[in-house]
Amino acid sequence: MSNKLQGVRGMNDLLPDEAERWEAFEEIVRDWLKSYGYRPIRTPIVEYTKLFSRGVGEHTDIVEKEMYSFEDRLNGEQLTMRPEGTASCVRSVIEHNLIFQNPQRLYYSGPMFRHERPQKGRYRQFHQVGVEALGFAGPDVDAEHIVMCRRLWDDLGLEDVSLELNSLGDASERAEHRQALIAYLERYQDQLDEDGRRRLHTNPLRVLDTKNPALQEIVEGAPRLLEYLGEESLKHFEAVQALLREAAVPYRINPRLVRGLDYYNRTVFEWTTTRLGAQATFCAGGRYDGLIEQLGGKAAPACGFAMGMERVMLMWQEGLDTGRLSSPDVYLVHQGDKAQPFAFRVGEEIRSAGFSAVFHCGGGSFKSQMKKADASGAAYAVIVGDDEAAAGKVSLKPLRDGGEQIAVTPEELVGLLADHLYGTDEQAG
Ligand code: HAM
């Protein structure tokens, strides 16, 4: 009997209790984004594979081993289910010439796909809320992103969050540092692990990101990118920090913060917590001034970040209380051939008046239906028998704080619901 189908490993269902918490979270997030003037953009989940190999970087973990890529059976095109949102957003902005006149503050949210080993806080389908500011060169917008994150964590009541900050400088500074780093790492080639040796010439910065404790000493002694920053990059980095100090956002400079995607330059940051075990980073981003041009657009600066929604939801304890159980206003109980269509119509009238109503399906005695009405959490039962239907009336029974059952017409019913549920009365008009 084990032909029961299961969901794909690492891809989760959100059952109603959890999905309602997510909706509550999404509402908060939307208001927060609007309060900073960000506008939504929605791009497809599937893109051409080369968008990510070019955008995210040929030698990143994401492109080398984590993408869900496939060939379109009908025309042989190489397609990929997006592993992140920045490349898609930039592709769309270029394609539709969106920053031709004005810079854009944009956001998106939705599922992303990476073939990683699933564990707490790490999934193969996960969700991001991403924010991108395109066409802005100054350090003020880098700081805006960090400060707006801080506001959201405060609004959500998240505890135990810290901010790590670094600057990756500009392409030429990175190239110079890269040369020095390769020369340094080559001296330790024999001691590097397989990953390290493989990345030495392709992505030496990532060698510094190793979790291998045996390599920590080598990593410690490696030349630091911060020491290779030129005047402009340093000025930018200092200005971001000054704005953070001004906004009283504490941060720690982590010279080894390099990020797992290749498009970054200058400011990079990660928000971490000790509450999620190994998956400590719940939000991350930075500046990517070269990406628009690299993807075929007219050169323009940009920066952004994305939070992992699953990770934030694991941290949002208060959301457990604020998650609204969506109880209907009314549960419609009915019995009889005439009662059923009448109750069905009354249900529509209740909804037209702006209330929610659950129509009982599946028959059963009045008593068993009343039990269901009670269990639904509805504030009222509206009860219809054939007699009531013949008289064009329904019985309204309060289910929560006592009160008499009364017979009313459907018109009177919506008036009473308005009085009781919204507290309107005649005098108040
Ligand atoms: P990322 O660091 O790859 O950056 O991902 C951002 C966040 O998504 C991570 O900090 C984490 O919270 C979450 N995340 C990533 N992978 C998983 C996973 N397998 N399971 C659960 N959560 C995950 C980006 O994606 C960039 N596009 C961010 C950005 C936007 N940079 C500039 N603009």
TrEMBL record:
Which InterPro entries does the UniProt entry name for this protein? aa-tRNA-synth_II (IPR006195), aa-tRNA-synth_II/BPL/LPL (IPR045864), Anticodon-bd (IPR004154), Anticodon-bd_dom_sf (IPR036621), His-tRNA-ligase (IPR015807), HisRS-like_core (IPR041715), HisRS/HisZ (IPR004516), HisRS_anticodon (IPR033656)
What region holds the Aminoacyl-transfer RNA synthetases class-II family profile domain?
1-328
SUPFAM superfamilies per record: Class II aaRS ABD-related (SSF52954), Class II aaRS and biotin synthetases (SSF55681)
State its location(s).
Answer: Cytoplasm
Name the major location. Answer: cytoplasm
EC number(s) of the enzyme? 6.1.1.21
In its UniProt record, a GO molecular function of this protein is: histidine-tRNA ligase activity
Catalytic reactions on record: tRNA(His) + L-histidine + ATP = L-histidyl-tRNA(His) + AMP + diphosphate + H(+)
Under the subunit heading, UniProt states: Homodimer.
Q: Which family does it belong to?
A: Belongs to the class-II aminoacyl-tRNA synthetase family.
State the protein's name.
Histidine--tRNA ligase
